[in-house]
Amino acid sequence: MENATIKSFKLRGTRITAAQTAAREQLWPRYGVPYAEKLVLLTNLFPENSRFVMEIGFGMGEATIEIAKSHPETGFLAVDVHQPGIGKLLSLAHENELTNIRVMDEDAHLILKNMIPHDCLDSVHLFFPDPWPKTRHHKRRIVNAGFIDLVHEKLKPGGTIHIATDWVPYAKWIEERFALTSKFLGGIVNRPDWRPLTRFGGQGIRKDHEVTDFSYAKI
Ligand SMILES: C[S@@+](CC[C@H](N)C(=O)[O-])C[C@H]1O[C@@H](n2cnc3c(N)ncnc32)[C@H](O)[C@@H]1O
Hints:
The chain is built from seven helices and seven strands. By secondary structure, it is of the alpha/beta class. A seven-stranded mixed β-sheet has the order 3-2-1-4-5-7-6. Strand 4, helix 6 and strand 5 (155-165) form a beta-alpha-beta unit. It is globular and about 45 Å long. The structure holds S-adenosylmethionine (SAM). S-adenosylmethionine is lined by residues 8-9, 56-59, 63, 79-82, 85, 107-109, 127-130, 142, 198-200.
């Protein structure tokens, strides 16, 4: 977080469907975690789980649901600010009767900083973060020195951050940012079996698309 006022997201003109609005109203009390400047115990949020993952920027939640379904032992704290996506993820969690997902609607920086205790996450998932391709927007890229330090504080020792991007210049940027820190070990990996192909990661939405996966472990 080089500058807390620069956001890594832009709230888009949100066309939210009636079903997404209804899900938001009806299912938020069950799955939603309201933002507060107060630490939250993950063992309280996920009493049935022994591992904890925070996903930052789940979009429409396609990957989130698949991963949560195949990892019932893990509690997933799914974070985004995109209203249609929040509605969609809430409906999918309900349809799939998942008990290992909780959803938050706030800037991930604030949640990490103010709500997540140190050394408590097994993993952070960051799939296809907004690439902010224009040079004047690079300051909005979520992967920066401040973010790397913040994630480091919150991961358990040996915990990992997994990142995927389909924007080659951003892949280079991510590699460079992690090369500057001695707090993590890792680099480019093959797509892990557990990360499903989604809109971004599947048949490319960009012609020249090439997906790079990274895994870095906290030292
Ligand atoms: C390009 S989309 C990718 C969505 C999804 N991960 C996928 O693979 O389809 C990036 C998402 O990250 C969210 N986002 C960006 N910065 C964020 C932040 N600081 N806190 C929470 N969500 C954020 C955006 O709202 C957007 O939904």
